[in-house]
Every structure is written in structure tokens, then in C-alpha cells.
Specification:
The complex is a heterodimer of chains A (about 240) and B (about 100). By secondary structure, chain A is mainly alpha-helical. In chain A, about 75% of the residues lie in helices and about 0% in strands. Chain A has 11 helices and no strands. In chain A, helix 5 packs parallel to helix 7. In chain B, about 80% of the residues lie in helices and about 0% in strands. Chain B contains 5 helices and no strands. The radius of gyration of chain B is 20 Å and the shape is flat. The mean pLDDT of chain B is about 90. The chains are: A mainly alpha (about 240), B mainly alpha (about 100). Chains A and B meet through helix 1, helix 2, helix 3, helix 4 and helix 5 of A and helix 1, helix 2, helix 3, helix 4 and helix 5 of B.
Chain lengths: ~240, ~100
């Protein structure tokens, strides 16, 4: 029983909350986006191609994995398969959001899930734990991350030659620090600790033995299996 | 500004598989009935995946990166995200200077 003015107040508040919550992730993505664009130029992509890739794919980790194996001629099959592997987790993220987006229209879901990422998924889950997830909140976060990523990766490609070595300012570590911060937000105690440790060890080993992009799949599988196994011990 | 056909094909393929994974959950989630154990495992998916993505940088790059990652993890639970990133990046720059 809400009036129209209450609804529009709620709508604006949801947008404001979305902006507030996504801001740290958007700021963290700036050096990462610049770095990505600069790496692409080093691999022979034009700024227009970088803008197209970010606009159509918009998946940071998968784009980094792809550009790592990029070459001439472009290994199309390897690039697409690596992208699929790194993004397989999206299946589980979108599945977990289905019951929380039950009130969305089809278009809101199709658009919102187009910009689905680790960050806005994590924040949406956190939000949904305490109150209903609204289209305004979800689409604001997705829209900000999407625009932000396309803008800064393209700028990185344009400015690539002038940035110098990104390692000098530690920009290559921003992604790692961001993910550690996100993992801390997921912390649920012992079961998370088990998943994190086994995933880290398995991923590092797979990276050394098999190389990218297998470390993502192997590490994630090890972590999920550990959570499954330890939960069984707890409930038995 | 150039557009190369193989590059465009690769980008189109990347876009297609990525969007398929993003909306894929919509088609099987309703059939997904999770038991207690499976739900517990499902709940740990994000942490497991995020760790797997960064483990090579954190554990298989060098001592500076490993120590910086541990320091970042120590502050991550108490500080906002952006402060965590700033401390992590500052730590790696310092440690690379110290440890080479």
C-alpha cells in the first residue's frame, strides 16, 4: 500500500544506494581498465576494437585471460573457449539471482544480467539478504560498471603508449586486492576458510602445471568440493 | 582506427558465450532443488571462484605479491573495499622495492 510519491522516493533511494554500493568497485576498475586497454594495444588491437570487446563482452577476468593468449593470427577457438571457462561461474551467479529477481520484467532481467559481474552479483546477494532486490538498485550497479569499464579500457588503449610500465605503480595488483576485499565480504567462517584455502592451492598448482585458463576451473572446483565435504561432516 | 575480421570474430564469439553464461542460470535455476550440503557448497562458490582467479598472482608470482596479498587479506575484513585496494597496491609497490 504505497503511494506514488513513496514509490518514487523509494526508486530514487534505490538508485542512490546502488551508486553508493558500486562506487568502490567502479573506482577499483579504473586502473584495471586502463591497464587492460594498454595491454591490448601492446597485442596489436586498435582502441576501436578494445571498445567493441569491452562493450560486447564486458567481463574483466575473461578479457584479461583472452588478451594473454592473443596473437597473430588470432587464436579464435582458444580465445572463445578460455572466455567460456572463465565465465562459467556466471551460470551459478545468475541462477542464484533468479529467485531474488522474481519481480523483474523480462527486459529488466535480460539487461541486468548482460552487465552481471562478480562485483554487482556479490553486492546484490548482500542486499537481498536483508531486503528485496529492486530493478533500480540492480540496473544502476550494472549500468555504472558497464559504462565505467568501456570508458576506461578504451581510454587505456588510446593512452596506452604514455602510461609506461603499470607494475611501477602496482596497478597490476589492484585486481588481486579488489578480489581479496570481495572475498572478505563473503566470509561465513570455517566453511569459507576451507573453500578459500583449497581453491588457492589448487588454482596456483593448476596455473603452474596446466597454465591459464585452467587454474580458474580447477581452483573453483576444489573449493566447492571442499565446502561440500566439510558441510557433510558438520551435519552428519 | 582499424577493424580486423579475425579480431571481430573472436570478440563476437567471446560476447556470445559470455552472455549465454550470464542468462543461462535463468533456464535451470527453477529446476534446481538444493539439499543442505549442496546449498552449503553453492554458498561458497563466489569465494572459491574469486580466489581461483587471483591465486596465480598471490601465490605463484613472487614473495612481494604473496606477502602483499596476505597483508591485504588481514585488513580486508575491517576496512572498506577502496581502502583495502589502496593498502594492497601500496604494499606491493613497497615490497617489490624491498624484496626485488
Amino acid at each position: 500500500m504505497t503511494t506514488t510519491s513513496e514509490q518514487s522516493t523509494n526508486f530514487l533511494a534505490e538508485i542512490r544506494n546502488g551508486l553508493r554500493d558500486i562506487l568502490p568497485a567502479a573506482i577499483a576498475a579504473i586502473p584495471i581498465g586502463l591497464l587492460f586497454g594498454a595491454l591490448c594495444v601492446g597485442k596489436g588491437l586498435s582502441p576501436l576494437e578494445v571498445a567493441l570487446m569491452s562493450g560486447l563482452v564486458c567481463a574483466g577476468a575473461a578479457q584479461f585471460a583472452s588478451i594473454e593468449i592473443w596473437g597473430h593470427p588470432v587464436p579464435i577457438a582458444a580465445v572463445v573457449f578460455s572466455t567460456l571457462l572463465v565465465n562459467l561461474r556466471n551460470l551459478l551467479m545468475s541462477a542464484s539471482l533468479v529467485p531474488k529477481t522474481g519481480s523483474f520484467t523480462v527486459l529488466q532481467r535480460m539487461l541486468g544480467f548482460y552487465a552481471l559481474s562478480d562485483e554487482n552479483w556479490a553486492l546484490s546477494e548482500r542486499r537481498a539478504a536483508s531486503r528485496p532486490l529492486t530493478p533500480a538498485y540492480f540496473l544502476t550497479m550494472g549500468g555504472v560498471l558497464y559504462t565505467n569499464w568501456v570508458f576506461w579500457t578504451t581510454l587505456g588503449a588510446v593512452a596506452g603508449a604514455f602510461l609506461g610500465d603499470p607494475r611501477r605503480i602496482g596497478a597490476d595488483f589492484a585486481f588481486t586486492a579488489l578480489f581479496i576485499g570481495l572475498i572478505a565480504g563473503f566470509w561465513k567462517g570455517k566453511s569459507t576458510a576451507g573453500a578459500v584455502v583449497s581453491s588457492a592451492v589448487a588454482s596456483a598448482l593448476a596455473f603452474i602445471v596446466l597454465g591459464p585458463p585452467w587454474h580458474v576451473l580447477v581452483g573453483a572446483a576444489a573449493g566447492i568440493l571442499t565446502a561440500y565435504a566439510t558441510s557433510r561432516a558438520d551435519t552428519a | 582506427m582499424t577493424l580486423d575480421i579475425p579480431t571481430l570474430l573472436a570478440i563476437a564469439g567471446m560476447a556470445l558465450v559470455t552472455y549465454a553464461t550470464r542468462i543461462g542460470g535463468l533456464f535451470f535455476a527453477e529446476k534446481l532443488e538444493l539439499s543442505g550440503r549442496a546449498r552449503a557448497a553453492f554458498n561458497e562458490i563466489p569465494a572459491a571462484v574469486l580466489v581461483a582467479v587471483i591465486a596465480p598472482m598471490a601465490l605463484a608470482t613472487g614473495p612481494a605479491e604473496t606477502v602483499a596479498a596476505l597483508l591485504t587479506a588481514l585488513v580486508a575484513r575491517k576496512l572498506p573495499l577502496i581502502a583495502t585496494i589502496v593498502i594492497g597496491v601500496a604494499a606491493v609497490v613497497l615490497l617489490r622495492g624491498l624484496l626485488g
